[in-house]
Design brief:
The radius of gyration is 23 Å and the shape is extended. α4 crosses α5 (150-158). The chain has helices spanning 46-60, 94-97, 104-136, 142-148, 150-158, and strands at 23-24, 62-64, 67-69, 75-76, 98-99, 173-174. It has 5 helices and 6 strands. The protein starts with 22 loop residues before the first strand and ends with a strand. It folds into 2 domains: 11-102, no CATH class; 103-176, no CATH class.
């Protein structure tokens, strides 16, 4: 039998903001971010199960605040050539993101690439927000906008005020 005793001085509730990560739009999947370990004998369905989950994410989309986030799959396995199931994944570029030999250097390169893509996404989202703010502001109030938020104009000038839908970047697809 387990008896729970409250410790003196540890009765305060912690206050914190929950992080708002992109999530699967179906609402039934585990909330990101999580880890998964599949262990089983050869032919037991480990690869099939993982590919099935990734395919689910490709079908149901990863969303946050009305924005669809591009799913990109990285594969490191010595069985790439022997297993055709990987070809079913549209989020896996086999030429670019499939590797048959693991190394710490490879993993660090993948992580750095993901960080660079995330920065590009965030830059695009900032541009889109700035673009919308600029074009929703009446012309006579643009001076006030510049005085309060000059960074909006710097971001817009960088892309020459091009509509966000016409930027040729690897950006998330907007639902709005």
């Amino acid at each position: 039998m387990i008896i729970e005793k409250k410790l003196e001085g540890f009765d305060n509730k912690l206050k914190f903001d929950k992080l708002n990560y992109p999530q699967c739009s179906c609402g039934l999947c585990p909330r990101f971010y999580w880890n998964m370990l599949n262990i089983g004998s050869r032919g037991s369905g480990k690869t099939y199960t993982v590919c099935q989950m990734i395919k689910h994410y490709e079908t149901h989309k990863i969303m946050k605040d009305g924005i669809e986030y591009k799913l990109r799959t990285h594969l490191i396995t010595p069985t790439i050539q022997a297993n055709e199931i990987y070809q079913a994944l549209s989020s896996l570029d086999i030429e670019k993101d499939a590797h048959d030999d693991y190394s710490d250097h490879l993993l660090l390169d993948i992580i750095n690439n993901i960080k660079a893509e995330k920065e590009e996404y965030n830059k695009f989202l900032l541009y889109k927000k700035s673009y919308e703010k600029f074009f929703q502001t009446p012309e006579k109030k643009l001076g006030d906008l510049y005085d309060k938020n000059p960074e909006i104009f710097h971001v817009l000038e960088e892309y020459e005020y091009i509509h966000p839908n016409f930027l040729s970047t690897n950006r998330p697809k907007s639902i709005s």
